[in-house]
Amino acid sequence: MIKDQLGKFIGFLIKEGNRVYAPVLRDDGFLVSAKISDPADVVINGQLTYYPWRKYFLPATETIFNIHQDVLKKVKVADPQVLIGPTVLDLRALDLYNQVFADDVYYQERKRATIVIGQSLAPADKREFAEFQDKFREDQLEHVEFDIFLEKTGDDEMKVYTGSEDGQRLLEKFGYKDYENIKYVGPIKEDGVDEEMTSILEKMKSGYNSKLFQELGQTCINCGKCSLVCPTCYCFNVLDKAKRESGEGRRVRQWTTCFYPNFSWISAKHRFLSDTEKRIYYWYEHKFVRDPERYSVPGCVRCGRCVKACPVGINIMENIPRLKNGE
Amino acid sequence: MKNIYEPKPAKIISTQEQSPGVISFKLRFNDEKDQKNFYFFPGQFLMVSLPGYGEAPVGISSFAGATDTFEICVRKAGRLTSALHQKKEGDLIGVRGPLGKGYFPMKEAKGKNLLLIAGGIGIIPLRAVILDILENPKSVSKAQLLYGAKCETEFLYKDELKDWQKIWSMSLTVDKHGPEKCSLVCDEGLITHLLEKEKIVPDPLVFIVGPPVMCKFVIAALKKKGVKDEDIYISLERNMQCGVGECHHCGIGNKLVCKDGPVFKYSEIKGTPAAV
Fold this sequence. Notes:
heterodimer; A: alpha/beta; seven-stranded mixed β-sheet; four-stranded antiparallel β-sheet; B: Rossmann fold; 2 domains; six-stranded antiparallel β-sheet
């Protein structure tokens, strides 16, 4: 498929009545996903969007029940949507969500109503790119879920894969037949679970790395920006927003982060995560201990979004080797 | 697909003020089928809710063998619990559960000496254990209860304590004696003081429920007495938003208190940062 055809395909998706979301360049220079009305706005360049794609599966504030005259009422969950542009790293985060929210009716309905069109992440360097492409299909595409995947093969060219019948149907209807189908074999690679993940897990379980976390506890300012841009952060609060007089309102799930002081607060006026060091440890523990042990996939996809967002320069890419060394 | 967030309506059969600010509720699911399918193990918990006020985790305090009703006990602490305290006989509240795969191992306690340590409203889930043993007194060898509260008025289930004494070797303590006299013998001092002073049943299986700071000191005192980590069970309290393992507010190490607990064998969580 060439760039021109992709534009037509996006136009076709919009005409079919889908809500289409894809990366656009915001006027302040940030690449962000947005609702598309003109295919010409779409930027498919192999780069990560500043924010993750989480909100399309787990909205920032999601109504789980309407409250009518003090009674809970079911909600209609999801309208069909098409996401164009999540990278392999973003799709790996979805692998994790699929497991965390396996029993969750809201997530599952939203997922069923979503067509995911992924794109390959493009290294800037050309030689690096050739090497990367070589291992790409086998190493990566079999282990992430998507409906359609666009692999960059040249400046304006891309190879098209499908990963679901929905994806095939859409392409056929549009009139594009030159695609290959890839069978999803689950998130875990043939050579077993992620080695780096296992080694960090073992180190973290064998003892608390006080030097690293004391240091991070002194640097971190509890702003929570890392959680906002992290594709694998999914912690939320459940609360009722209702007008007392009328008995009308809704019960919602709302994003939060373990950096906020009330995250671990209990009614006995006790706060388990009582200082910054404990909170940032909890954040790392969630990604490198809890997620891998509970779901067999890493809780960090190494996208580096948090590195860009952190106002005080905390760099997870530098901390991962330190965790592995248990220094 | 079943919605794990959907509460089932339960009717308040009766309420009783247990102490200032603490009310117990006897409940029955509105739908007979829900009541019939309701079966819990002592130590498990429920998410209770009122539309407009939110949801909170509470312990189950009744005898697990009772089939037509179940009980909870709620201390007034915030918006939801204050609204619950306004509810009267016949009113409906939302209930999800029983939740948690970690509960008190009643099977393992068979034939052993059992020591329960309750601090404050920690007696609520332990009452389910106490009633179980009252119903099956021969299931354990010796049963001992240490129960501490701030002052005499703060003891819950005051009208039942005498019954419990028939089978349980029971010692009570208050942080400081209040104006209200207790009909039972009651010490003054922290619960760790009782642990040192009282004759403790030999080789006990220990169940602990109480505020975090109490648990820390009680475990240290038990260790001094040579109680093995594997013989200590502790119920952990955490901020819980979902109760079903999704919101991750209640993590400790690789575990979630709502899913894997709330009751843990101490040897399984020992050394985990910020667990106890």
